[in-house]
Amino acid sequence: xxxxxxxxxxxMTVTVGFVLADEFSGVLTKVDGxxxxxxxxxxxxxxxxxxxxxxxxxxTVNSDAVISKGKGAKGGKFxxxxxxxxxxxxxxxxxxxxxxGVNVRITAEGDKVSQILVITPKKKAAN
Length: 127
What we know:
Blueprint: H1 2-20, E1 21-32, E2 35-43, E3 50-52, E4 57-72, E5 78-83, H2 91-94, E6 102-109, E7 112-119
Parallel strand pairs: 4-7
Antiparallel strand pairs: 1-2, 1-6, 2-3, 2-4, 4-5, 6-7
Protein backbone atom coordinates (compact mmCIF):
# COMPACT_ATOMS: atom_id res chain seq x y z
CA UNK A 1 0.00 0.00 0.00
CA UNK A 2 2.73 2.45 0.99
CA UNK A 3 4.76 1.52 -2.09
CA UNK A 4 1.81 2.37 -4.37
CA UNK A 5 1.42 5.73 -2.66
CA UNK A 6 5.11 6.57 -3.10
CA UNK A 7 4.98 5.57 -6.79
CA UNK A 8 1.86 7.68 -7.36
CA UNK A 9 3.48 10.72 -5.73
CA UNK A 10 6.61 10.26 -7.87
CA UNK A 11 4.62 10.04 -11.11
CA MET A 12 2.56 13.10 -10.16
CA THR A 13 5.71 15.12 -9.36
CA VAL A 14 7.37 14.24 -12.66
CA THR A 15 4.19 15.08 -14.59
CA VAL A 16 3.82 18.48 -12.90
CA GLY A 17 7.50 19.21 -13.69
CA PHE A 18 6.90 18.69 -17.40
CA VAL A 19 3.77 20.85 -17.35
CA LEU A 20 5.62 23.78 -15.75
CA ALA A 21 8.28 23.94 -18.48
CA ASP A 22 7.42 26.49 -21.17
CA GLU A 23 8.97 26.63 -24.63
CA PHE A 24 8.39 29.59 -26.91
CA SER A 25 9.84 31.55 -29.82
CA GLY A 26 10.76 35.18 -29.40
CA VAL A 27 13.09 38.03 -30.17
CA LEU A 28 15.82 38.73 -27.63
CA THR A 29 16.15 42.51 -27.36
CA LYS A 30 18.40 43.07 -24.35
CA VAL A 31 20.96 41.23 -22.21
CA ASP A 32 21.91 42.61 -18.80
CA GLY A 33 24.14 40.13 -16.99
CA UNK A 34 21.95 37.07 -16.35
CA UNK A 35 18.74 38.98 -17.13
CA UNK A 36 17.33 38.96 -20.65
CA UNK A 37 14.42 40.82 -22.20
CA UNK A 38 12.41 38.80 -24.72
CA UNK A 39 9.46 39.72 -26.89
CA UNK A 40 7.37 36.56 -27.29
CA UNK A 41 6.20 35.91 -30.83
CA UNK A 42 3.37 33.86 -32.31
CA UNK A 43 2.41 32.80 -35.82
CA UNK A 44 0.85 35.62 -37.79
CA UNK A 45 -2.11 35.61 -40.14
CA UNK A 46 0.17 35.50 -43.19
CA UNK A 47 2.19 32.35 -43.82
CA UNK A 48 5.76 32.70 -42.60
CA UNK A 49 5.07 35.91 -40.68
CA UNK A 50 5.17 36.35 -36.91
CA UNK A 51 3.51 38.91 -34.68
CA UNK A 52 4.08 40.04 -31.11
CA UNK A 53 2.45 38.06 -28.33
CA UNK A 54 1.93 40.48 -25.42
CA UNK A 55 4.52 42.73 -23.81
CA UNK A 56 8.26 41.96 -23.53
CA UNK A 57 9.20 39.83 -20.51
CA UNK A 58 12.34 39.88 -18.36
CA UNK A 59 13.71 36.43 -17.53
CA THR A 60 16.70 35.18 -15.54
CA VAL A 61 19.11 32.77 -17.23
CA ASN A 62 20.27 29.86 -15.04
CA SER A 63 24.03 29.59 -14.58
CA ASP A 64 23.90 26.06 -16.07
CA ALA A 65 21.63 27.03 -19.01
CA VAL A 66 22.40 25.58 -22.43
CA ILE A 67 23.10 28.38 -24.92
CA SER A 68 23.63 27.29 -28.50
CA LYS A 69 22.69 27.81 -32.10
CA GLY A 70 19.62 25.92 -33.19
CA LYS A 71 17.64 24.92 -36.21
CA GLY A 72 14.12 23.85 -36.94
CA ALA A 73 13.46 20.14 -37.30
CA LYS A 74 10.51 18.20 -38.61
CA GLY A 75 7.27 18.52 -36.69
CA GLY A 76 7.88 22.11 -35.58
CA LYS A 77 10.55 21.08 -33.07
CA PHE A 78 13.90 22.80 -32.66
CA UNK A 79 17.24 21.17 -31.98
CA UNK A 80 20.57 22.49 -30.73
CA UNK A 81 23.46 22.46 -33.19
CA UNK A 82 26.63 24.36 -32.16
CA UNK A 83 27.12 25.31 -28.52
CA UNK A 84 27.98 28.98 -27.90
CA UNK A 85 30.91 28.55 -25.50
CA UNK A 86 31.02 32.15 -24.24
CA UNK A 87 27.30 32.12 -23.37
CA UNK A 88 25.60 35.49 -22.97
CA UNK A 89 28.96 37.25 -23.35
CA UNK A 90 29.15 36.20 -27.00
CA UNK A 91 29.11 38.89 -29.70
CA UNK A 92 25.66 37.71 -30.80
CA UNK A 93 24.26 39.00 -27.50
CA UNK A 94 26.55 41.97 -26.81
CA UNK A 95 25.91 43.67 -30.17
CA UNK A 96 22.15 43.28 -30.51
CA UNK A 97 20.41 45.49 -33.07
CA UNK A 98 17.59 46.96 -30.95
CA UNK A 99 15.18 47.11 -33.89
CA UNK A 100 15.73 43.56 -35.15
CA GLY A 101 16.88 41.73 -32.01
CA VAL A 102 18.01 38.10 -32.06
CA ASN A 103 15.57 35.30 -32.97
CA VAL A 104 15.58 32.70 -30.20
CA ARG A 105 13.75 29.64 -28.95
CA ILE A 106 13.59 29.66 -25.15
CA THR A 107 12.88 26.89 -22.66
CA ALA A 108 11.93 28.30 -19.26
CA GLU A 109 10.47 27.10 -16.01
CA GLY A 110 8.65 30.07 -14.55
CA ASP A 111 11.02 33.02 -15.02
CA LYS A 112 14.18 30.83 -15.03
CA VAL A 113 15.64 30.06 -18.47
CA SER A 114 17.25 26.63 -18.93
CA GLN A 115 17.91 26.76 -22.69
CA ILE A 116 18.40 29.44 -25.36
CA LEU A 117 18.63 28.42 -29.01
CA VAL A 118 19.68 31.17 -31.43
CA ILE A 119 17.66 30.64 -34.60
CA THR A 120 19.07 31.99 -37.84
CA PRO A 121 16.55 32.59 -40.61
CA LYS A 122 16.68 30.35 -43.66
CA LYS A 123 18.33 31.94 -46.65
CA LYS A 124 15.96 32.40 -49.57
CA ALA A 125 17.10 30.85 -52.80
CA ALA A 126 17.93 33.30 -55.58
CA ASN A 127 15.72 33.01 -58.65
